[in-house]
Amino acid sequence: MPAIVVAVVVLALFALGYLYYSRYLAERVYGLDPAFVTPAHELSDGVDYVPTNKHVVFGHHFTSVAGAAPIVGPAIAVFWGWGPALAWVVLGTIFAAGVHDFGALAVSVRHKARSIGTLAHDVISRRARTLFLLIIFFLLTLVNAVFAVVIGNLLVANPGAVIPIFVEIPLAIAIGQYIYRKGTAALVPSLFGVVGLYLLIWVGNEVPIEIDGLADQLGFDRTRDLWVIIMFAYTFIASRMPVWVLLQPRDYINSHQLFIALGVILLGILVGMDEIVAPVVNDVPEGSPSIFPILFITIACGAISGFHSLVASGTTSKQLDKETDARYVGYMGALGEGSLALGSILAVTAGVAATRADWDALYVDHSTASDGAVGNFVNGVASFANNLGVPLDLAAVFAAVVVVSFAATTMDTGVRLQRYVVQEIAELAGWRKLARNLTLAGIVAVAIPMAMALLPGGGDAGYTFGVLWRLFGTTNQLTAGLALAVIAVWVTKRSRNPVAVLVPLVFLLIMTSWALIQQLGEFIDAEEWVLAPMDAVIFVLAMWLIVEAAIALRRAFTDRAVAGTRT
Amino acid sequence: MPVRTGHRILLVGPWRAGTAGGGCCTASPEDIGIVPHEHPPHDPGRDDAGGDDGPGPAAVVRALRASVGPEVDVQLVDPRNTVYLVPTVFRDARAGGASAARALATAARATTPWTLVADGVVVSRAVPLDHPSALACLPPDIPRTSTTR
Fold first, then answer.
1. Do the beta carbons of residue A342 and residue A265 sit within 8 Å?
2. Which domain of life is it from (chain B) (predicted)?
């Protein structure tokens, strides 16, 4: 089937979801009121709270939530065939992510633009705030670990990407200094940054850097592990810099790259008219992870991402002019993320291989599919770029640079954020030394994910990337579950029908718990004494979340019944 | 060429932390309910380090809205929000009669922090503005409320 047909059908379904389902949510579930005085009008601090046009807010929201994660999950999940992966992306985006992102924004607007962590405390229970911080701690640990592994794998497979990636750091610092010190426009210097980066792709392709020898001399079994250590050393330093020095200009450069990559995928498909060579449903080898529940935690971002509730309830909700704008900003943001996942599926089913046999070799078993997923995406995008006349070797480095840049920026921010979370948890636990010592908190923020990324064991080949990714997906779904629980309680308290929220909530909690139990058994059988306790702790958090959500929902239904009796 | 249907004023805010992120797998500390300002002031990595001082842009936008006619659309835009900023300024500049090249240059200049754009024309650039100075920068054809005429 031509990839372009699938793209058009999916985008049409997204449009229908926006036109009809988001309207149902706005009118019947969240009960948006155009006359409601939003926090942007009610609260004024001259900094964050300002009523803003919905198109402006959408632009801000989308550039904040769009990233690399919706690429990885779908690139692994097509192992079960492109049909199930695409179905989960489409249904998840329309019926779960849209409900979640839109709902988080709506509930935050009704609570003075409070963040989902604070709302968990206010709407569910005081304990839920601690639960939220613990989930975020594990989530960030796994985010930083998986992206370090992604970068390590890509730099080993694409030595041509090393120079562009590492020269991007001083390039971004120079641009940041120029913009900040000169008070000049950000667009042109950052576009120069993108052009400079792409020139470096040519240099990198001519001068590939491989560190296999160095890794060997230093006693590393895998070259990837040395890259992982280099990346964490870099992020430890980067997390101590003010954001405007490195993070912001780098993020700015990346936001341009995102649109360029999306354009390349869509144009490449259109020009090349590539056929999807992967099977609709793949006949996977015996002993492979089962599609239920693993598919639904493999694709987290791209179907539903808990992180979106953080941005929606943190920054975006402070700017909404009208409550009804939440539909456009929140729901459309989810559709944008789903479109990125669609691009990833097309790259790894139509772009990466010319024949079914070639594709089968790339997805021969689950661990090959997991370890090769990001590389497959890179090669798929390279093929689309090649349709546009870019030489294949340069196109591959270009695609690798896009993914590594995003992953590295995610690590920059993730390690910084984890440092704050470590300090916050230490403060709650009364560990004053850790709470006040920035270096110590930074070391904790780096050491734990680095240990996960370097994890020994798993046989000669080491752990497959898929193992870490599944734990990450599970924790991301738990964050989404917590946000959906907050939304469901709020909807119930307002005497509205919460079914549209409860269905994705229950589905996610079942899939998450099921996956955690299944993985725990596997880890114990394989005597994996690092992963097993981690899985067990995340399972305890999931059970804790289920209990808190059930208690809060029961209370909300009881209060509603009592209020109904009185009237 | 687009036709202007009303007046639009855009205040491009300062270069500040907001959402310095790596996409969908990160957030700002405020997004998870942590206030970085509460962390020690010597923390070189805190998110407001290096930020702008001076009048808050939201306060300036509020005051501008109160000072101009209701038919004038006044918006505060983050300099990072190129998805909205660049096409909007380009369109407004074209509607004002600018050539495509000039409109593109204006759109690029509009991504400067603390820039005021009125109907596709950059009227102040890279200078933190308070309300009176922002109002003084606006072209005379922008309708004012009776109290500010």
1. no
2. Bacteria
- Alpha carbon of A56: minimum distance to chain B alpha carbons (Å): 6
A398 in the Ramachandran plot: left (φ > 0), alpha (ψ -120 to 50) or beta?
A: alpha
**Which residues, numbered 26 to 55 in chain B, qualify as contacts with chain A under a Cβ-Cβ cut-off of 8 Å?**
26-34, 36, 39-40, 43-47, 49-51, 55
Q: State how far the alpha carbon of A174 is from the alpha carbons of A250, A255, B81, B82, B126, in Å.
A: 10, 18, 21, 20, 19
Would A458 be classed as within a structural domain?
Answer: no
CA A377/CA A365 separation, integer angstroms: 17
Which of these, A537, A56, A313, lies nearest to B58 by C-alpha position?
A: A56
Reply yes or no on whether the pLDDT at B37 is more than 50. no
Ramachandran sector of residue A415 (left: φ over 0; alpha: ψ -120 to 50; beta: rest): alpha
Question: Rounded CA gap, A325 and A545, in Å?
Answer: 30
Assigned domain for B116 exists: yes
H or E stretch covering B98:
none
Chain B, 97 to 126: residues with Cβ < 8 Å from chain A are 107-115, 126
Distance CA A107, CA A84 (A): 32
Nearest-5° angle of CA A508, CA A512, CA A515?
A: 140
The total domain count for chain B is 1
Q: Characterize the bridge pairing of strands B115-118 and B7-12.
A: antiparallel
Segments of chain B assigned E as strands: 7-12, 72-77, 115-118, 121-124
CB contact under 8 A, A248 and B20: yes
Smallest CA-to-CA distance from A473 within A505, A502, A516 is with A516
Q: Which two tokens stand for residue A469?
A: 């990714």
Question: What is the 3-state secondary structure of A418-468?
Answer: HHHHHHHHHHHHCCHHHHHCHHHHHHHHHHHHHHHHHCCCCCCCCCCHHHH
Q: What is the pLDDT of residues B56-105, one digit of tens each?
A: 788 888 889 999 988 899 998 888 788 888 899 999 999 999 999 999 99
Residues 54-73 of B with CB under 8 A from A: 55-59, 61-62, 73
Structure tokens at A217: 């001399």
Determine contact, residues A177/A249, Cβ cutoff 8 Å: no
Residue A274 lies in a domain: yes
**Is B2 a member of any domain?**
no
Instruction: Tell whether A463 is covered by a domain.
Output: no
Range of the domain at A158: 3-450+469-566
Q: Is residue B49 part of a domain?
A: no
**Is the pLDDT higher at B52 or at A435?**
A435
Q: At B101, phi and psi to the nearest 5?
A: -65, -45
Question: How far apart (Å, rounded) are the C-alpha atoms in residues B113 and B77?
Answer: 10
Give pLDDT, residue B39: 45
B91 touching A (Cβ < 8 Å): no
- What is the number of domains present in chain A? 1
ipTM: 0.74
Which segments of chain A have a pLDDT < 50?
Answer: none
Q: A529 lies in a domain? A: yes
Determine how many CB atoms are found less than 10 A away from the CB of residue A106.
28
Q: What are A34's two structure tokens?
A: 């155009």
Query: Is A55–B19 a contact, with Cβ atoms under 8 angstroms apart?
Result: no
Q: Are A298 and A69 in contact (CB under 8 A)?
A: no
